[in-house]
């Protein structure tokens, strides 16, 4: 009695299944919403017209939710990267929480405490810059790494489904690019249009959010396409357990720039300056990063899915091959027999 070899023992395809991927997408959207809310409350708490610690208390709750969402995203990483990510996330959330505590103490004691301590003010500004830039980048890295992992063939969608998903993801990326570019062009062409300057940033925030979600969906399509057998996807299968590095890099750029652009545009839409010390420079960098990355990843996503739907009758089954071989043998025997008869008659 022979035992069948365990082909799954060394299978590097350890990507998320459909249920865990859905949880990851929900966690990513939750992080996006709480991250924006944290930035809004930070600026509101620093507003001279606000004399209540309420925004800082609510900000503490949002920091905790965003940290939990980030850790949920990292569940699909390997043990060592996951542990490193958790440590970094806890550290960044603790720093943000300390900032809120300092703000609450300032309101409770004296509103001029920060102004009388330039060293403390400089430290808070530096920490704010580090967290505002580092946290989205770290989460974007984890999200791209988790989504880019190949999945078992049984978890990969059918070629026809992948075609629909690739078109939907590419449409979302093109829509995000179109929204951001259209607002920028209209602002450039119609400088005196107050409507564009009052509500244009709201559309930019919407475009950044659409690009953020679409980049995750596009990278998932690429990963599932690479998980199909070698004769299915246009890009071919991969045994390394990862998608092409270019697709992962593009998704990372879009997610990171989408987080920053959505936050900066939301702040500008409600009448506050950008929260990070990067200011408008960071807004411009994130905008062009989102636009360029979305365009390239959209084209890459359209090219990664199968270009035609495989029909059940298109592929030769083993039984059909056997029957065909048998008929060929029979035909060969008939031809040999007929050739022998002709020779005997000729003699």
TrEMBL record:
Bias type Polar residues, positions: 320-347
Organism, scientific name: Brevibacterium sediminis
Region spans: Disordered: 307-347
Keywords for the protein's UniProt record, in alphabetical order: Membrane, Transmembrane, Transmembrane helix
Protein known as: Uncharacterized protein
Bilayer-crossing regions: 21-37, 57-77, 84-104, 124-147, 168-190, 202-223, 250-272, 278-299
């Amino acid at each position: 009695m022979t035992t069948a070899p365990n082909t799954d023992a060394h299978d590097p395809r350890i990507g998320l299944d459909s249920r865990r991927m859905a949880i990851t997408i929900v966690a990513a959207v939750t992080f996006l919403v709480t991250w924006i809310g944290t930035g809004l409350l930070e600026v509101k708490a620093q507003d001279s017209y606000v004399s209540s610690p309420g925004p800082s208390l609510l900000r503490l709750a949002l920091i905790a939710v965003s940290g939990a969402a980030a850790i949920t995203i990292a569940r699909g990483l390997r043990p060592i990267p996951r542990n490193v990510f958790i440590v970094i996330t806890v550290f960044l959330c603790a720093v943000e929480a300390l900032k809120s505590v300092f703000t609450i103490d300032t309101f409770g004691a004296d509103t001029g405490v920060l102004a009388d301590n330039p060293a403390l003010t400089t430290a808070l500004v530096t920490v704010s810059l580090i967290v505002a830039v580092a946290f989205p980048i770290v989460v974007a890295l984890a999200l791209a790494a988790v989504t880019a992992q190949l999945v078992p063939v049984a978890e990969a969608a059918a070629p026809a489904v992948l075609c629909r998903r690739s078109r939907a993801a590419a449409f979302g990326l093109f829509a995000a690019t179109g929204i951001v570019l259209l607002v920028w062009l209209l602002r450039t062409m119609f400088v005196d249009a107050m409507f564009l300057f009052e509500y244009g940033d709201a559309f930019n925030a919407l475009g950044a959010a659409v690009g953020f979600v679409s980049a995750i969906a596009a990278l998932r399509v690429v990963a599932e396409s690479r998980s199909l057998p070698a004769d299915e996807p246009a890009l071919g299968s991969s045994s390394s357990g990862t998608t092409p590095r270019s697709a992962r890099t593009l998704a990372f750029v879009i997610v990171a720039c989408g987080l920053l652009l959505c936050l900066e545009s939301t702040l500008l839409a409600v009448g506050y300056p950008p929260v990070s010390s990067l200011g408008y420079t960071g807004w411009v960098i994130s905008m062009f990063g989102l636009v360029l990355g979305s365009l390239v990843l959209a084209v890459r996503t359209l090219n990664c899915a199968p270009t035609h739907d495989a029909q059940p009758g298109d592929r030769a089954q083993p039984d059909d091959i056997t029957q065909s071989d048998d008929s060929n043998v029979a035909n060969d025997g008939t031809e040999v027999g007929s050739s022998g008869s002709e020779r005997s008659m000729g003699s």
